[in-house]
Design a protein that fits this description.
heterodimer, A: 388 residues, alpha/beta, OB fold (Dihydrolipoamide Acetyltransferase, E2P), Rossmann fold, 11 helices, 13 strands, rod-shaped, B: 74 residues, mainly alpha, 55% helix, disordered C terminus
Chain lengths: 388, 74
């Protein structure tokens, strides 16, 4: 026995209260009174019930689904602790719902708001489901039509896949730990591309495991993206909200997990046809090219030959003009020295009395040099064009 | 084609081949080689789809040994 300080006692009480599982997560119903709001926006109120009162504080008012007023009958969720500065025992409220809702609904809404607040439903968190999964994890009940349906659908649609079954109860007490363990086990398997979490239809109570926080967190923690297919089309569970893809039913989940063989076959056939037509198109174009090239070569050759012919003609004409015989035809004569055969183009080459040969267009005759005179002016004056 | 090529990669390769063939600018020998590879891929994929049998394995969860005691949520 000893004397304690106030702080020791309030601290001890706080630890005691916070160690209690029941007090850490409770719903309390009562009537709102003494409602006030602090400058910081926190709500303080009292829950009344006959002769009992419980002090309540709510820090995050923005998250409240309803507006509360004095006199309102509500159900508040939170944890009990002690505020050491005043020694007051309080309910630290995180959500409030109007009185009259069932507990399942209350829990569903509370967890949904909480996880949504953590961003677990955000679209950007959703992972893409691979189109061609190789290994598919399946977490569902080992007995029952659901597993059978899933296997049938995947066998029919995409037998290239490999199924890794992870049996778990999906209803009753063992369901939540079973599903959590199923995800733990699947997380240890390499190369699982997608996980299907499935359960057939049932009452809202039957589907409760899928509205539990532990299951929701297991789905979030899955290494592979998760497709949920729980209950009927109209059932939405918390697991559906956190899954990467929600399928309306277990069968739909199986269909969303794999591509369809029929569609793939059609696609492959289309590929085959496309490749053939592209190649034959290419061959046609090449044939055309060969034809075109042949035609072009031929016409090019024609024009080259034509040009050569033309040049040849020109050469012939040119040669013709140089042909001395042609010159002789126009009345000129070729004079050669009879002694040495030199062509006489200058008076210096001959002397009086030298014998010369003179060739004209149709023959030759001999002669002798009788005299020479330098200069041609006198002679050329005989041509009309040179007359000045 | 490599029989172990995953289906997805086979389809991707087919896409590439048909793009390359469609774009043109290939030599005839290259085009024929691509065409043969593509048709081979189509056939192998079709055969694999037709012949495949779903493989099923089961994970043994250590369910029963530790039913109690780990109820607390993460």
């Amino acid at each position: 026995m000893r004397i304690h300080s106030v702080a020791e006692i309030t601290g001890y009480l706080r630890e005691l209260l916070e160690a209690d599982d029941l007090l850490a997560d409770i719903w309390v119903s009562g009537e709102v009174s003494s409602l006030s709001q602090s400058a910081a926006g926190h709500l303080y109120f009292t829950l009344k019930d006959g002769n009992s009162q419980l002090r309540c504080v709510l820090f995050n008012r923005a998250r409240l689904p309803i507006t509360i007023e004095n006199g309102m009958a509500v159900v508040a969720h939170g944890r009990i602790s002690i505020y050491e500065a005043t020694g007051a025992l309080q309910l630290y409220v995180d959500t409030v719902q109007p009185e009259g809702m069932g507990l399942l609904y209350l829990e569903f809404e509370r967890l949904k708001a909480k996880l949504e607040g953590e961003g677990l439903f955000a679209p950007e968190r959703k992972r893409e489901i691979p189109i061609f999964p190789r290994r598919i994890g399946i977490a569902t009940s080992p007995d029952g039509a659901v597993l059978h349906d899933i296997i049938n659908i995947i066998t029919r649609r995409y037998p290239l896949a490999e199924l890794v079954l992870c049996p778990t109860p999906v209803q009753g007490e063992g369901a939540v730990p079973g599903i959590v363990r199923a995800f733990d086990s699947l997380n240890t398997v390499d190369d699982i591309d997608v996980v299907i979490l499935a359960r057939g239809g049932g009452s809202m109570e039957d589907l409760q495991a899928f509205n539990q926080e532990a299951v929701a967190r297991a789905v979030c923690g899955s290494r592979a993206p998760v497709i949920s297919g729980v209950g009927h089309e109209t059932d939405f569970t918390i697991a559906d909200f956190v899954a990467d893809l929600r399928a309306p039913t277990p069968s739909a989940a199986a269909e969303l997990a794999v591509p369809s063989r029929d569609e793939l076959m059609a696609q492959l056939a289309a590929f085959g046809r496309g490749l053939s037509s592209m190649l034959s198109g290419m061959l046609d174009r090449l044939r055309q090219q060969v034809d075109d090239t042949a035609n072009r070569t031929a016409s090019h050759l024609d024009s080259v030959v034509g040009k050569y012919k033309e040049r040849l003609l020109m050469q012939e004409l040119a040669l013709d003009s140089l042909n001395p015989l042609a010159t002789l035809g126009r009345g000129y004569a070729l004079v050669q020295h009879a002694g040495n055969g030199e062509v006489v183009s200058s008076i210096a080459q001959v002397e009086r009395g030298d014998a010369i040969d003179i060739k004209v267009s149709d023959g030759q005759f001999g002669g002798r040099v009788s005299g020479a005179k330098k200069g041609l002016q006198a002679w050329m004056q005989g041509f009309p064009s040179n007359k000045r | 084609m490599d029989a172990g090529l995953p289906f997805e990669q086979a389809l991707e390769r087919l896409e590439q081949i048909s793009q390359a063939l469609g774009q043109g600018g290939l030599k005839l020998e290259e085009a024929i080689a691509l065409y043969e590879e593509g048709i081979g891929l189509v056939k192998t994929c079709q055969q694999r789809l037709n012949a495949a049998e779903l493989k099923i394995s089961q994970l043994n969860t250590p369910a029963d040994e530790e039913t109690e005691g780990e109820e607390e949520a993460p």
